[in-house]
Amino acid sequence: MDAARQEGIFRDLAESRAEVDALLARADPAAWVNERTGRRVLDVAAHLAQWEAFAAESLEAFSAGGEFRLPPPFEIHAVNERVFREHRERGFAEVRAFLAESRARLVAAARSVPPDRWPGPVTYPWGARGSVDALLLDMRGHDRHHAGQIRRAAGPA
Fold this sequence. Notes:
Blueprint: H1 3-26, E1 32-34, E2 39-40, H2 41-63, H3 76-87, H4 92-112, E3 122-123, E4 129-130, H5 132-154
Antiparallel strand pairs: 1-2, 3-4
Helix pairs in contact: 1-5, 2-3, 2-4, 2-5
């Protein structure tokens, strides 16, 4: 992995997070993202933060020669439900701080992986294996997906 490509990925992550942060700054944390599931803006922010913390843990373990993955049997909906429950009573400022901390931890963990090890394979939190850049790009896509949900909940700027 060359340095220019790595820096491009870090720029993409910064841009996607800036978008999420701007949306969260104007969103009502209690606004519904999905009334059917009962998910609010606060829940989505906590979800983003927790998955980035999981991804950071995977990269930290990889750097140390190990691996991290959520314990099997892995079932995405059960993990997400647990995340929503664990963060439901946290304040919005606390969740936003956790989001910032998780992103900083993710970037620091990625930067700690030597460039020659970026091809991996690194074990992702959900058990798949791949490259460091693919994991980071997945986190960027995760930001973008949920930014759309927050944007709809926040309404026009």
